[in-house]
Design goal:
mainly alpha; 0% strand
Length: 157
Amino acid sequence: MTNKAPLHANPSKNRTPRHRAREFALQGLYQWLLNNEDVGAIEAHIREAHGFDKADAAHFDALLYGAIKDVESLRAGLSPLIDRSIKELSPVEHAALLIGAYELQNHIEIPYKVVINEAVELTKSFGGIDGHKYVNGVLDKFALRTREVEVQSSRKS
C-alpha cells in the first residue's frame, strides 16, 4: 500500500483555480509528511493529476514549496497554539495548518478570513469529522498573531 494522497476531493462545481491549487498543495504536503519524498517528485506526480489544468499552478507552487521551505518556522508559530505535539496531528490537519499559516504570513493580499475559510474547507473535504473545527480555532489564533491589525479591524466592524 502506498501513502500517496488521493488526487481528488469531494466534488464541487464552484471551486476556483486558487481553491484547486490549495487542494493539490494539501495532497502534496500530505504525501511529503507521510513519506518525506522529494518535493520535485511530488510536484510532478500532482501536475499529472486529473483537474490540475484548472488549478492556479503558480499558487500551488508557492504553497507546496513555500510551506516545505518554511516548515520549521511555521511549526514553531503553530506549536504554542495547539493542544498536542505536531507529531500527533493528523496529516490532513497538519497540512491544512501549514497551508493556512503560510498564506497568513506570506500572502497578505488574501484576506485572513478567506485563508482560514479555505483551510477549513480543505479539512472538511479531506479530513476527519471535526478536524475543520480544530483547524479553524488554531488558524484564528495564528491570524491574531500574524495579522493583528487586520483581525482587530475586522472584529470592530
